[in-house]
Amino acid sequence: MARIFTSLLVVTAAIAGLMLPDSVDAHGGQSVHARTPERLAQRRLFMSESKRSLKDCANSEASRRLQERAVARRAAKADSLRAERRQRRRLDVDTLFGDDVKCILEPEVTQGPYYVNGELIRSDIREDQEGVDLYAEVQIIDVNTCEPVQGLYLDFWHCNTTGVYSGIVASGNGDSSDTTNVDKTFLRGLTPTDEDGVASYTSIFPGHYTSRATHIHILGTYNGTLLENNTYSGGYASHVGQLFFDQDLISEVELTAPYSTNTQEVTANGDDSILSEEAAEDFDPFFEYVLLGDSVSDGVLAWISVGVDMTRAQTITAAGTLTADGGVMADSTSTTTGGNGGGMAPGSGMGGFDGSVGGPSDVSMGSV
Fold first, then answer.
1. Rounded to an integer, what distance in angstroms lies between the CA atom of residue 74 and that of residue 88?
2. Does any domain span residue 2?
3. Could you give the number of structural domains in the chain?
């Protein structure tokens, strides 16, 4: 049975000013920013300005053309994936995807504690992980131009069915005595956006861990260097965020193996502190989706559009780095502006996005 949701455009407040030092500690050392009067004032200002930008985008000819292409692309992909599963009933395009784009804001939230620099450039990140197949499409729109952002390298990572992230050895992330996990790369990867601003991934539906609802992390980086070992270095981070799923879908997936073997406590969407930040007021950080068969076991096709301000950059803290010799955990003070470091922090003259990200062929090559 298909699950159907209205189209949306999620816009992120990619402003360093929102990342104030007042914070409280959540599961796994994850920082949740306190709602200080200064931060709330900055957030209200950004929301007011962004709503005006979004209204212009929603009514633009570029937006309508983009939506038409998105409908055709998603319908073709859904039909192809269903055919692979010998599902004969074709999906109704108008019912599933519609033609009405709704622009919805997303405020700044924590990046989460488990970002790893230098992950492999790839779209299929499953490796040997079992679970419900997830085919995810994230579209990036520049809110200043209403145009898709091509050539943005988008990191995409999440935990496995039992709530464990690869590349990290830490208390609360599975068996902390298993030091080999620092070298693992499952369910992590990045890929450049295409001419429609779309980055596509083949993964599994994420599992859960104590105190957090089911979610996926994304981080967009531009003007970096494509290395010979198929990784990406440097550049500037234009967006960092977390994306979520409908609670009914999560509950259905959690009934299947191996998700059902996860003994960690389940946190519903309504009880997740970070989601309450993202979904406040008019914000809606949820994937739209459709099942590829009669049950979740046949796989899920999901999509979301994310608006970013490409004139901004963010400072990112990495928990580790994937090197040619394996994973290396970072010290607690390691920060970058995206990719594998380098560049200047926001406000230091970096100058923001100049509209010349281009495609993968436009990114410079470097040595390992």
1. 17
2. no
3. 1
